[in-house]
Sequence to fold (309 residues):
Amino acid sequence: METLFFEYPATKTLPRRAHVGVVGSGDLEILMEPSAEARTKVTVRTSVKGFGKTWAKVLERFFTVHDVAATVKINDFGATPGVVTMRLAQALEVSQDNAILKR
Amino acid sequence: MEVNPHDLIRIKGYSYLITDAQEPEWVKVALTQAPYVVVRRAPMEKGHIPIGIRGQQRHERFAAFLPQDAVTEVITPEQLVTQKQWQQSSRYYQLPVLRALDDIYEIFQFYGLVWGPVGSVGFELVSGIPTAKDTSDLDIVVRLPHFPSIETARQLVAELTRIPIRMDVQLEIPAGAVSLLEYSQGSQLILLKSVCGPKLISHPYR
Fold:
């Protein structure tokens, strides 16, 4: 088990909390919550050690494109970068959908 | 030759592997110890089968391709179930995951589903090499012609949850695999792991 931290500047607010993904080999769980700070803070807990550089690349690419101030917790079970990016996109989408429903 | 993701292949020899990159040292060691590779979820390339090699450590995984003439035998996860292969294991009384397969067998039998253990447990049952650990999850695939009803999925999850080990069940349909748990939750989007990579699809029965 390895824990990694990442932080990025952010300006837009995340509409609402989102929880996506599942515990399972090659997959991951993501909890994305709005943050009052103008930052995106990501904590990754992964079962696979030694992929810090890959995480940095994948997360930086995603949060450069998607500017949201959020606290993100990732629980990873060996997901590929493709799966990680897709789950992040899903979390954003769910957050926006939930916001529409609650309006 | 038909092979599916998770099938194990007994290979003729280490020298048949087709690799893009220089393989790490452990690959040869692993294949000398047990000449089995696992079919990856990826497209065939020039008729070659996409395979993966697993080492002792969790991070030791290596992707390669295998020419079809290097295949000695294909062992499917469901084959291990027909013969209740786990009961023949010398570690049956030592590993709770192996004994749990008896209960899981009854559940899937009741629903008439075709299934099998994969991951470290499947590999151990086929190769005879102690691979599963006390801390290992039990990875299972269920092969279906199409998605089950959400009700069936929920009932399955409820029944499987009573077994006190951590399980990861994937529903394998022709288009790819989805997590049984995620599917049963009925969220709008679910992750499909297809031969062409992962994609988010709309839940078919929501």
Observations:
- Helices of chain A lie at 52-65, 81-102.
- Residues 2-102 of chain A form a domain with the Ribosomal Protein S5; domain 2 fold (CATH 3.30.230).
- The two ends of chain A are 40 Å apart (CA to CA).
